[in-house]
Amino acid sequence: MFQDPGFFHTALLKDLKPGVKYFYSYGTDEDTSKVTSFTGPPYPETKVAVTKFAGYGDMGVYYPPYYGDSMPGAADVTHALEQEAAEGLDFILHFGDISYARGRGYIWDQFMSQMTKVAEQVPYMVGVGNHEYDHVSGGEKDPSGAPENGFHPDWGNYGEDGGGECGVPTVHRYVSPDNGNGVFWYSFDYGLVHVIQFSSEHDFRPGSRQFLWIEKDLKSVDRKKTPWIVVTSHRPLYTSQEQNGDHIVGLHMRLSLEELFYVHSVNLHMAGHLHSYERTCPVIAGDCVKPGTGTVYVIVGSAGKFLDAESYNEYPWSKYQNCEKFGYERITANATHMHVEFVAAPGGEVLDNFIVPSWEENLTQRTFKKFN
Questions:
Q1: Mean of the pLDDT values across residues 235-259?
Q2: Which residues lie below 8 Å from residue 224, measured CB to CB, with a gap of 6+?
Q3: What DSSP character marks residue 236?
Q4: Which of 55, 56, 124, 369 has its CA 20 to 30 A from that of 195?
Q5: 208: which residues sit within 8 A by CB, 6+ positions away?
Q6: Confidence class of residue 308 from pLDDT cuts 50, 70 and 90?
């Protein structure tokens, strides 16, 4: 049944001062929110000591009793993020499978209410996943400008998981920088980090509109200002979990993008889609390399949706897996390294942690091999 979403209001705040705490409320004369606050971001040219942020995919909504569309881990992760935001996160990245509304407006309403205490305090930056976007009809509604009904290569498992949304509700609920293609792919600088969120639900192959944008954006990064590059997409490049269709899509993503990430020294890639956690070594074309010479790939699709129980295949590049705990990634970057932690919710136990050092200069040319 259709539910009118009502009106969406957007306010643009200009001339914010870095480090200043701003207090605000929102609403109407009849109904106004409680006063809350956020801290002004650093100027782009300003060097900061630390940049701290969180990332995850695949959350959904929670409400008792836990059945149907209610996601069992979403409550614990949301409450943990509320505390993290209050203690000083700079921003949050949610790379797809946001509410799992799939065309049901009331679930979007529930999700936006659920995340209020988080998004009131820090920038909440989203990307699209299959459950926001994928469709096989209705492409004329698609605000991304993709041809016909989107990206459906014969080797892919792209279907109609968006439930007819075609990305429309996501576009109307979230604001993103205008340097790419709206919420579908974009980048931004915050403190020491340059972030690229791209869409694995759109054509990412060499020569595509999105690939050319990613290439141009990576070339534009000034590592003196932002020494760290973090890239996200909904689907992962590397997964060892026994889900064959996603493994094949990952191989094609590697074939298309991994050399580009190597040439431009991408430090960390985060994805979701699989409802579990997995972390690679620093890796190039399936080979582990020493820290500072390859990208680390992390799957953190454990923010609320029922966890995937499939077993893992043995690959030398897969260094840690967990399909038993909900949680999120917490990243703390300074001038010399990034400290990355997988934090369980509830409880806050750090289940995995690793250091990403600065990328070494003057690396030798690498020949990218075909996959085994």
A1: 95
A2: none
A3: -
A4: 369
A5: 202
A6: very high
Note the pLDDT tens digit of each residue in 100-119.
999 998 899 999 999 999 99
Q: Return the beta strands (E) in the chain as ranges.
A: 21-24, 36-39, 51-56, 91-95, 124-127, 186-190, 193-197, 228-232, 268-271, 277-280, 283-284, 287-288, 296-300, 318-322, 327-333, 337-344, 350-357
In the chain, pLDDT over 90 holds for what percent of residues?
A: 84
DSSP, collapsed to helix, strand or coil, labels residue 119 as helix
Q: How many CA atoms lie within 13 A of 366 on its CB side?
A: 21
Predicted pLDDT of residue 371: 45
Q: Could you tell me the maximum CA-CA distance found in the chain, to the nearest angstrom?
A: 65
> So what's the pLDDT on residue 28?
87
- The amino acid at 60: G
Q: What is the average per-residue pLDDT within 8-15?
A: 89
- Of 46 and 149, the structure prediction assigns the larger pLDDT to 149
Q: pLDDT tens, 212-232?
A: 999 999 999 999 999 999 999
Q: How far is CA 129 from CA 32, 79, 122, in A?
A: 33, 23, 22
C-alpha span between 302 and 155 (Å, rounded): 26
CA angle at residue 213 from 207 to 214, to 5 degrees?
95
User: Which ranges of the chain would DSSP assign to H, the alpha helix?
Assistant: 74-87, 105-114, 116-119, 130-133, 168-173, 209-220, 244-263
What are 232's strand-pairing partners?
197, 270
Phi–psi pair at 216, nearest 5 degrees: -65, -40
CA dihedral for 280, 281, 283, 288, sign (positive or negative): negative
Residue appearing with tokens 């991304």: 144
- From the list 216, 289, 219, 210, the residue with the least C-alpha distance to 253 is 210
